[in-house]
Design brief:
Layout (H helix, E strand, L loop, with lengths): L3 H17 L16 H7 L4 H7 L4 H8 L7 H12 L1 H16 L1
Helix pairs in contact: 3-4, 5-6
Amino acid sequence: MPSHAFLEIAAGLKDAIAHAKGDQGAARVHTIPVVDVKQVRERLQMSQREFAEAVMVSLDTLQNWEQHRRTPHGPALVLLNVLDQHPEVVFQAMKNRRAASRT
């Protein structure tokens, strides 16, 4: 007899296939909101260079995001959303990490 985990995985695959075929009710889709990178940076009162260094991307990447030539995705998009909603959390984590690396 199949295990409970197998049945859950099989049901999830069935839902994913139905969703791929256009059945919008077949699966839950999680999306991360798009962020206006320039607006976040300006609200934080940071230069492009400072902000690029803070989020660990090149200045070119930041400028491409701000000018909508590229769109952040994956971990960068998550980080930008956290910076948009709770910048103090990100900056505190960065400060803690720098302090830990010095010891």
